[in-house]
Amino acid sequence: ENGKCHRDQGTRYIIMVFSIVNLLKETGQLVTEKLLYVLHLTNIIEWTLYISTLVFMDPIQLFKPTNVTTSDGTARLECPGGIWEIGAISIFFAWMNMVLFWRR
Prior knowledge:
Elements: H1 9-33, H2 35-38, H3 41-57, E1 66-69, E2 75-78, H4 83-103
Antiparallel strand pairs: 1-2
Helix pairs in contact: 1-3, 3-4
């Protein structure tokens, strides 16, 4: 496969399930803790992490790679703009979540 947008489908679905399960867990905490839940920075970081991860994994395929023909006639896949930035946001918030976890 040539192109930088290829993602292993098995890994993609595992990550999506993990994110959805954690979002459901966070929703349960939000319902039980109410206002106290929103006041903790860790919870905001986790929501941002899981949502940005789902967007990066793109379950509804808003960010479809396009086939581009270069000047020398070879075809390659090109990622849409912004997708790697969303992935970088996910990695940053995963790192922040880990640092906050270590501090507990």
